[in-house]
Amino acid sequence: MNILFVIPLLLFQTTPPSDALKFITAEKLRAHIAVLAHDSLEGRGPASAGDRKATAYIVSQFKKSGLLPAGENGSYIQNVPVVGVTVDPATVLRIGTAEQQIDCEYSTDFVVTTGTYEPLVELRDAELIFVGFGIAAPEQHWDDYKDVDVRGKILVMMNNDPATDDPNLFAGKGRTYYGRWTYKYEIAAEKGALGAIVIHTTPSAGYRYEVIRNTWSREMFDLDESSSSKGLRMKGWMTEDAVRKCMQLSGFDLDSLTAKAQKSSFRPVPLGLTMNGTMRSTVKRIRTNNIIGKVEGSDPALKDQYIIFSAHYDHFGIGRAIDGDSIYNGALDNASGTSLMLNLAETFSALHVRPRRSMLFAAVAAEEQGLLGSKYFASHPTVPAQKIAANINTDVINIIGRTTDISFQGSDRSSLGNDLAEIAKGMNLTVKPDQAPEQGGFYRSDHFSFAKAGIPAMSMGGGRDIIGVDTAFVRMIRERGGKSYHQPNDEFSNDWKYDGALQQAELVIRLAWRIANIIEMPYWNPGSEFEAVRKKSMLQ
Predict the structure, then answer these.
(1) Does residue 4 surpass a pLDDT of 80?
(2) pTM as predicted
(3) What is the dihedral of CA 328, 489, 106, 175, to 10 degrees?
(4) By CB atoms within 10 Å of each CB, which of 89, 134, 177, 439 scores lowest?
């Protein structure tokens, strides 16, 4: 073959058409965010009127862009069955010994829900056991449970992983899935516990208790698929101060117990405390939905393989009022990421040359409730999971300015990191690792659902080294963002700058085009926790 012919072909395969970058503009990004974060959508809570309005809007934009339906029954919609649980805020948990008790108040001291969806849960002299970090990880040679029978008990556990400087143990200073509160409830249920309480501390959670209180003190959702025989009758969070006061009643010190829990030799500690209380809940079985569209690839041999873009369109709806505002608009988190995904859909649909692989665009539901929409899609994919080459997730865009660096959650876990590095190099961007690994960001957005299903996945992040923007503005936006996380004041603002988001969009377009046109499927790095799942999937 003529070498002069091969080189242009390779350039075509990995470089998007020249018109690919003209479709996304600051005005288009701004317009979608303004609609989705408007008060009239009431915070886009799952299965709410605002959810339905958001769904109708996203479907209309998919149709406008010319996307093919890729949901169920020839539609753009994939129904996601969920259970909504609203706990009576008057719930009180009495914890103590035979001699002394403390009444812990809902919202102030703890938040709680039920995993068995019972309208009435009675707790009568339920024993409390401290189980350290609540981790059973054979490959780490770590078992906080040992041979202790915890059936029928209330388990009290620390958030996060044990602290260690060993990079081979629980990701060193980073966090593994074992450190996530979702895992802790899952393992507690497997062990037959009656309930589980995660102790909140700001360093271990990465956010203040107010974030937990505001997001849990309302209707909570779960997929309507769990077996009630394996669920926890009670699961929740409790403040560090409340836990300390309760432990002192029986002579235990939280700091001392936590120090013991940092070692693999730790064994569960009965606290000599019991819990009593009545938890009444309103339980509703309802449906929300994922919205999925498709741009068909051009290669007859590869068009039945897919890159899936995901962005969660939900937020927390209407909740606890703060400074008179009860609508949790979720402008940055994640109307902004949904806007970028809609712009990407328009871009790839409008190109005069299509990528070789097909592309799915999924606006997923109920991420804020535990990645429920993406979790449902991952277990009920509308295309075969082994045919999904990669997932690129967009959760929060850069509203400050262009950067000289970039960071994607999960870029160090699969071959996608190599593709990212190649594209970033061409854009004069330095790829940096996760800047806050202790917060476990890889496990906190929808790409993790795809990863658990074996699909190589990354979530778009931003850079930290801002170019040409006043430092006072940078500081103001970052401080505002920290204070508005999961709060009603996460609202659309006219002072946002979109140069950084357009830079992110260009990077994602170039990255996706490269992945879509290289014949080899992406793969997990050897030894990855998701490698075995992918290999099994590819055999189907």
Answers:
(1) no
(2) 0.90
(3) 90
(4) 89
